[in-house]
Write a structure and sequence with these properties.
The chain is 24% helix and 33% strand. By secondary structure, the chain is of the alpha+beta class. It folds into four domains: 67 residues, no CATH class; 143 residues, Chondroitinase Ac, Chain A, domain 3 (Sandwich); 129 residues, Immunoglobulin-like (Sandwich); 97 residues, Death Domain, Fas. InterPro entries: DEATH-like_dom_sf (IPR011029), Death_dom (IPR000488), Peptidase_S68_pidd (IPR019502), ZU5_dom (IPR000906).
Amino acid sequence: GMLFCQKVQIWIPYASPQTLHQREVVVRTFSGQNWSDLSTRVKQKRKSKKHVAHCSVLHFSWFLVVSRLVQNECKVPTEGTLLFSSVDPNIKVIFPPGVTEETRNVKLQVLPISAEELEEITADSGCRAGPLLCLSQDSLVDFLRPVRIQLPLPRGVTGLNLDQSRLHLLRGDLEGKTWDDITTQVVLEFTHLYAVFEVTHFSWYWLWYTTKTYIGGIAKKVYERLRMYQVNFIALQRKKDPEQVLLQCVPKHKVDPVLKKLQDRYRGPEPSDMVEMFEGEQFFAAFERGISIDMDRPDCVDGRLSFIFYSHLKNMKEIYVTSPVDRKGQAVKGQVSFYRGAVPDSIPEDASRRRKGPDSLWLATLPIKLPRLKPRWGENAGPPNGFSFPPLNLGNAETGYLTQTNLLSIARRVGADWQNIGLNLGLTYQQIERIGYNNREDLDKQILDMLFSWAQQNSEDPDCVSKLITAMKESGRQDIADEVETIIELGQQKYRESIRRVGLEQESSTADSA
């Protein structure tokens, strides 16, 4: 409850929403019983390219970064003022003198609606609508004098071709659950480009141009669909490591670009059929038929992976899966199913109730296959079939040797990063490419070929062991570097003991002769 003497600067990183210009990023904080937005500056760091949101506060609480419609606000004094939308400057609100006794804060938000989007939802090319306008204030008292609101006419409509009988002004409550036609309740004035009307309290306003008579129901349907997205689910497995699975929920217009970006590293079934999801809706991914998640995660609830769908984020998670089935003899053909979770509180109840039937929570199912395990070489076994190398002793007796058995042990710890390790060891890019091609579809043989090719090339180099340790560290494999150093230390210790033992034997032989 105590305040700081000076403002504290808070910087919070966030994933860039990559949205259109009508959205903005702000820091939101919890105070008392409500969430409120703070004055926020956003910045992209030059080196890391990370986005951060910055705000200044005098107290501590909960803080989070949100993406919202651009909000224009101003203080309305007794003398009146003018408020424009920065998203659409054609939208303005005029407050006349004497509109209020005490200064009050007003806010304006605009959501443009494209003609293509409207036609897709309504299936009516004759329906047109202007941008959605939301007006709010911090006072519960109506304005003392009417406030004038200017809205642009719907696209394609001008004062020259305007049919006033087809123009409807709708008002919605702050949650958009109902839309009432108030065309006959207000005085509408028209110019060549604009419609102007007056109100004494704020709400949502929407200008429509259509031949339909009951426009409120159509607007409600469109508003609900604007908050819903048509999405597809994808489930892909890494080519080099099939137990690593990528799950993602993608808006339908992004599916092809996303798959094209991932096709070099992943493979999997075709995307799921299209389903509809609300912005902010929860859904789960459950692995079934012999496949389960191979880790403890805070977002894993009762064996199911939890997601929250946001259209401007990736909605992607990568996990490792496993199976209790013995995969030495057969592959495991399982699946991953997606199920609905909690719906955002602000969603109209009748929109949620439309999901009927016992499978109303089920969204989609995609196949997942874990291949049969290939037998790996054992701790004391030689290399796999097809590999026959001459005995190797890297290093020297004084500094310690690395033998063929040691290299096999090291190879077991190398994974899909073998190419990076090979390049750091000094192999050429062409050698790496050839090794990968000659042993395609067999990661174990690729690793062995890389390690033993390097070993044969450097068997006469007295510093080859130290170069191996350095290469592992440069490749981010400190664990392997530590293992090599342990092997070398053990070899050096044995060498010193043998020298000492030989020295003792020589002294004993001299004493016997005496």
